[in-house]
Structure to design on (505 residues):
């Protein structure tokens, strides 16, 4: 899906737990996620802390979307 | 560590008033077996059946298959750390009822459970159509949580295998095979000119009904470690998995791991088989990195020349497989991988979710997406309704006449990544 949408000229950020798979598939902007059963959250955190975590991932993804890349880039900082 | 495995060949199975083996038949006292496996108040009813090769019987949804074994000499008991004390097993003598199996079924626990047909085309695809099966159908109490349900059935299956295994205790085996692995330093000296080979044994441990246990320890919590191959034959590793039926390793397959069998067969001839590294398949990238770092470190520590790596399941574990391959190869150690494929119904899609250049020797156990048709069966043990919802099934899989059309994925053990079946592929 990532590749097809990009082929249509729309940049994509792939938020993905297992980054190597995303790299193999060919995503260009990759934001690491939390875990396979809960990529965008963490049930062990308190609600407040989890919201912080979730917002952090979304903001990182939005920033990645606005960042020019030359080749596959993992936004793991 | 040296184990004598005594095989008592079982060609028939019957209910009787006494549990015993006589002339290749396993007689089972139904009430005594029920007493041995009952008592869990999470299960309201247990039904026992026998399914034999060639019968028009379908068992589904199958959770686990277990081989009855008993420790005759040496420390510990079968399934250490679970049914017995956590003594180190794998030495002395073990008797096995070869040709008999315990199969657990009942209301579906997770969505990834399987089908065993005892005849017809479906029987060709599963190794458990060739065994005489004691089938246990468990009905849970209402509103039992899935993980509790899974645990209850797992223990009932293990207890049944343990009970039946006792019937082999005082029987003279029809055939005895000896397996021995020396302590590492002695083993290296034994065949100094042969390549040192180990087996990297990946265990499905993603949690949420995808779990494997080592001496009773939930393997998602281990860091990779070393185990003698004969420990595995005594039930040190067992399945708590509700993963796609075709490529999960039932407890039966762990005890009969063909990679271990074959490495022993060629030990001292082509290889020096030094031992087994067990590792897991976890759900975060850091865990995957950590475990693959450890397998590579252990492979280097053992000064190996080559490893065989087997995967369990598919999808994100493909990454664990590739990480193990890449990192072990980077140490200058040759790798051969065993996996299966999800290449689409036409076989034209990418087979694995991940890939790496280092994976240049790969054995496949078949394409799990292949669509098959299973004829209706006269007798059903369990329930056919889950056919539409188990992994590999789809809306309309169960037809009104009782036949099933579904992906090969639904058949228990069809694409075993331990090679415990007949499917593979050759490059043309």
């Amino acid at each position: 899906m990532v590749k097809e949408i990009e082929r249509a000229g729309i940049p994509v950020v792939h938020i993905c737990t297992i980054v190597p798979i995303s790299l193999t598939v060919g995503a260009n902007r990759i934001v690491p996620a939390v875990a396979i059963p809960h990529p965008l959250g963490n049930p062990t955190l308190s609600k407040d802390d989890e919201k912080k975590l979730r917002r952090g991932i979304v903001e990182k993804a939005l920033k990645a979307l606005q960042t020019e890349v030359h080749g596959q880039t993992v936004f793991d900082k | 560590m040296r184990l004598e495995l005594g095989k008592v060949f079982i060609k028939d199975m019957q209910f009787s008033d006494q549990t015993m083996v006589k002339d290749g038949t396993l007689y089972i006292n139904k009430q005594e077996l029920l007493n041995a496996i009952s008592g869990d108040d999470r299960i309201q009813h247990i039904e026992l059946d026998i399914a034999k090769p060639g019968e028009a019987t379908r068992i589904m949804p199958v959770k686990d298959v277990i081989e009855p074994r008993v420790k005759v000499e040496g420390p510990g008991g079968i399934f250490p750390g679970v049914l017995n004390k956590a003594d180190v097993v794998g030495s002395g003598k073990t008797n096995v009822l070869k040709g008999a199996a315990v199969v657990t079924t009942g209301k579906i626990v997770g969505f990834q459970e399987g089908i065993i047909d005892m005849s017809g085309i479906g029987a060709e695809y599963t190794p458990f159509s060739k065994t005489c099966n004691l089938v246990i159908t468990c009905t849970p109490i209402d509103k039992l949580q899935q993980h509790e349900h899974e645990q209850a059935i797992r223990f009932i299956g293990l207890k049944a295998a343990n009970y039946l295994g006792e019937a082999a205790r005082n029987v003279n085996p029809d055939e005895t095979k000896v397996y021995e692995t020396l302590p590492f330093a002695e083993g290296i000296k034994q065949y100094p000119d042969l390549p040192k080979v180990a087996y990297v044994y990946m265990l499905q441990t993603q949690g949420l009904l995808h779990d494997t246990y080592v001496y009773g320890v939930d393997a998602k919590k281990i860091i990779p470690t070393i185990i003698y191959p004969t420990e595995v034959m005594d039930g040190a590793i067992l399945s708590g998995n509700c993963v796609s039926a075709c490529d999960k390793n039932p407890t039966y397959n762990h005890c009969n791991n063909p990679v271990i069998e074959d490495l022993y067969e060629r030990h001292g001839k082509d290889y020096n088989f030094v031992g087994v590294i067990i590792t897991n398949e976890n759900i975060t990238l850091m865990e995957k990195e950590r475990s693959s770092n450890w397998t590579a470190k252990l492979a280097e520590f053992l000064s190996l020349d080559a490893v065989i790596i087997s995967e369990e399941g598919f999808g994100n574990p493909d990454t664990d497989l590739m990480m193990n391959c890449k990192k072990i190869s980077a140490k200058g150690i040759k790798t051969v991988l065993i996996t299966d494929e999800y290449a689409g119904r036409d076989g034209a899609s990418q087979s694995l979710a991940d890939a790496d250049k280092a994976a240049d020797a790969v054995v496949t156990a078949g394409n799990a997406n292949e669509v098959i048709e299973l004829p209706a069966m006269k007798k059903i043990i369990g329930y056919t309704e889950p056919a539409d919802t188990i992994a590999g099934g789809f809306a309309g899989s169960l037809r009104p006449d009782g036949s099933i059309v579904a992906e090969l994925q639904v058949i228990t053990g069809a694409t075993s990544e331990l090679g415990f079946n007949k499917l593979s592929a050759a490059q043309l």
About this structure: Chain A has one domain: 2-74. The beta strands of chain A are 13-16, 29-32, 73-74.
